[in-house]
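Intended use. Records like the one below are meant for learning the mapping from a protein sequence to its folded structure. Do not use them to infer anything beyond what is encoded.
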Amino acid sequence: MDVFQVLLDAFCAKLNVPTHLVRMSFDGSPVLPYETPEEVADGDQVDMVVDWDQVKAPRAAANAVRVRVQRVGSKKTQVFTIAPEMTVKKLLESFCSLHNLVPATVVLKLFGEVLQEDVTIEASKVETLVAKVSRKRHVEASQVKFVIDGDAMHPHQPFHSYDLEGDEIIDVKLATV
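Structure written out for the chain above:
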């Protein structure tokens, strides 16, 4: 295999861009991956130009789970988008890597309970928001109902099962006693 082809493949894999959107030049002249010049030596510079206007931004999978992580004593939250099969351990490693922390010194909690590292995080369910609204409104959770497009949302369903795109209005109905 040609040296420039190997270089192009590695470059594109690192940046996660398709090879057809990268132009290469050597000594100021454009070259193709299969045209490795004879005079290439160790230490020579090859210029790579990516046509970023054509690169499509990566999108999270439709079933991805968005997890908000907040450090104790901080008001700032960070959002991690993870695959539903990703374990808490992977999330912990990503968080620690981002903040230069040792995973053994960090504890992730959800609603005050320590998360086990070998489990996955359930997608946010409607019941989570029902609980928040009921606490804020000082009513029982059974009195809170969410309605979208005229249909009641089931508390045990995850939000992603409703195919929300971001502009929907969810009506909150409180039953009176």
